[in-house]
Amino acid sequence: MAGRFFSGLFGCFSKGSRSDENQSDQDQREEQLASHLYGQYSMASAQANVKNEDRFQLKSGPLSNLPDGPTGVFVGIYDGHGGDFCSKFIYYNLFNTLKSYTTYHHGLEDPLYVIREAYYSIENNFVAFAKSNWEERHYLATVGSCCLTGVVHGSNLYVANAGDSRAVLARWADGEEQPQVVQLSTDHNANDEDIRHEVEAEHPGVPNLFTNVHGSYRLKGTLQVDFFWFIIIHHITIGIRY
């Protein structure tokens, strides 16, 4: 059941066990079956752009730097936009930042706080880096990334999302052939009227922030922005069986 759970939730992305810090920019296409802390999983990816702007990772084992700290599974999906710099930045830093916060707060007694603070830390660090370096690297002013993560600890699953990637859970009830499908995350982009109003309120006096282009709202008529700073965290009990 654990393998079917992960196949359903993250089945459209590549093998996570290769996604350590030595991962090359070559795409990992698929892995039919591999192992993690709670059982087995399968993942696959497909490249949509000339250069793949996305990154992914699966970490199975310690969720902190404490010798007797919590263990579990971490999955990250980073959908880059305008290039791969931001998605790579998240890939190289988010999980280690999460482990640092878990260590500092003595485990996962408050996992929602730990995950949220890790997100904010990565965002603040990336914004600071972009502000310091954009004159030499102008592309930093226009790159970004969605950030969708899942953390399994014990029988609990925590899903955090910023942007318009989407987590979907498929699980099989006893005796049922068809899965129950549940959307676990909320999409955040400029097509959401509430988000447009919030961005307009944050930038008063800026005319024509959003333009409807072929039925899709875009920032300044160009970017279908994924808002990195909107973080919604869902917590469910998954009841993993072996």
From TrEMBL:
Q: What is the lineage of its organism?
A: Eukaryota, Viridiplantae, Streptophyta, Embryophyta, Tracheophyta
Statement: the UniProt record of this protein carries the keyword Manganese: yes
Q: Which GO terms describe its molecular function?
A: metal ion binding; protein serine/threonine phosphatase activity
Per its UniProt record, the required cofactor names are:
Mg(2+); Mn(2+)
Q: Which SUPFAM superfamilies match?
A: PP2C-like (SSF81606)
Query: From which source organism is this entry?
Result: Rhynchospora tenuis
Q: Does the keyword Ligase apply?
A: no
Q: What is the name of the protein in this document? A: protein-serine/threonine phosphatase
Report which reactions are catalysed by this protein.
O-phospho-L-threonyl-[protein] + H2O = L-threonyl-[protein] + phosphate; O-phospho-L-seryl-[protein] + H2O = L-seryl-[protein] + phosphate
